[in-house]
Amino acid sequence: MTTQAPGAEPAERPSDTVDVCIVGLGPTGRGLASRCLASGLTVAAVDPHPDRLWVPTYSCWVDELPAWLPESVIASRIEAPTVWTLSEHRIERPYAVMSKTELWKALPIAGGRVEAQKATSVGAHRVELADGTAITAEAVFDCRGLPPVGTRPAASAHGIFIEAERVAEYVPPGEALLLDWRNENDAAADAPPSFLYSVPIGDGTVIFEETTLAIPGGLTQRELRRRVIARLRSHGIELDGSEHSESCHYPLDQPPPGWRGRKNEAIPFGSRGGMMHPCTGYSVADSLALVDTVVNALVSGDDPVGRLWTPRARAVYWMRERGLAGMGRLTTEQTVAMFDSFFRASPRGQRALLSAHDDATALGAVLFNTVAHTWPFRWRFDLMGWTNRNRWKA
Ligand SMILES: Cc1cc2nc3c(=O)[nH]c(=O)nc-3n(C[C@H](O)[C@H](O)[C@H](O)COP(=O)(O)OP(=O)(O)OC[C@H]3O[C@@H](n4cnc5c(N)ncnc54)[C@H](O)[C@@H]3O)c2cc1C
Prior knowledge:
- The chain is α/β, with parallel strands linked by helices.
- The chain folds into 3 domains: 18-54 and 106-146 and 254-309, 3-Layer(bba) Sandwich (FAD/NAD(P)-binding domain), CATH 3.50.50; 70-105 and 148-252; 313-384.
- The protein contains 10 helices and 17 strands.
- The protein has helices at 27-38, 100-105, 221-234, 284-299, 304-308, 311-327, 332-342, 347-354, 360-372, 379-384; strands at 18-23, 43-46, 59-61, 74-78, 82-84, 88-90, 95-98, 113-115, 119-122, 126-129, 134-142, 153-163, 177-180, 195-200, 205-216, 245-251, 267-268.
- The strands form 3 sheets. Strands 1, 2, 8, 9, 10, 11 and 17 form a 7-stranded mixed β-sheet that branches. A 7-stranded mixed β-sheet has the order 6-5-13-14-15-12-16.
- Helix 1 (27-38) packs parallel to helix 4 (284-299), helix 6 runs parallel beside helix 9 (360-372) and helix 7 (332-342) crosses helix 9.
- It binds flavin-adenine dinucleotide.
- Flavin-adenine dinucleotide binds next to helix 1, strand 3, strand 16 and helix 4.
């Protein structure tokens, strides 16, 4: 599996060394472990709760899912979700909520060595475990997810699950509100912006999730819940106390591994390794789609980081980070104007921002056009950071 310089002595490989050690069995780590095993690599995986089903509800664009995943992973499919900015936009691109149980079943890891404990140290070839033992591997992938938010630009959301028939007039069957920026959430004019995300999740309920993206440190659950309840009320819907809720709060700016200096480090992958999209807060479909890039690199003795993070992919990440910074200093009115401009872009332009891993040309064009068509003119200075650069910084 490893490459060797011409003429060099073959390095001795201890008999208990595995090809790949994966630390963290979230959807990324499990996906990577499963595909490595399927391609014949020996795998060890470490997670304190390897048999616990993931908590969040994962969604994505249907075309982002890798072809090797079965259709059954889609719990709910929306052919053309709606975006509300200054007006209504229908996005002609199928969107899906994933079934966590089906995704789990589609990523079998039987045949791998699984350690149900924490890793205490994660190095390039050695992982130390809480019980004092260690695993050695040709390659170690750090899939431990994201660090705490602190004051970093965040995705914060509070979601309430309501039976579909109670909300059928607000979100009719087969429909979804991907971003609803209508002025219905009772947010103060001088408070950070948030939008509604509402999709049928495939179990007879619809999630109503008030979400804020890019604000340093995010918003509190209390404020987000207050806002989503205000939206529901404005559509005549009252909670009866039976509804479950979910919350999220994580950083959006976790960078990819650097060009240099990785020799003694494990390879960060998934949300920990630059796959958390800085502008959407999504990482699962992209990480799963890139798993085979890693596996192919390992099998052919190539550098997975070089294959994942081509100059184009790095340029895309860099531009999305600029987008994140821009979004994180706008008022609600400005944000709505900016999204109104963005959702007039071509399907390729929209895709370049929302999901494509390395379409740098289209992304550059769509970002330029989004800024150029945001009105009034002076708001572009905020977007660029020339004015009100630190508007929401604590
Ligand atoms: C409410 C909510 C809704 C979301 N909606 C979406 C969505 O619609 N689409 C989307 O793409 N993303 C969504 N996200 C984000 C999503 O959760 C992350 O993108 C995704 O979980 C990242 O997957 P991952 O495998 O990289 O990391 P994680 O899922 O965070 O998995 C990390 C794993 O590492 C393990 N671990 C941590 N420390 C150690 C250690 N020391 N040793 C061993 N194991 C360790 C953990 O136990 C965990 O199993 C949502 C998040 C929330 C909270």
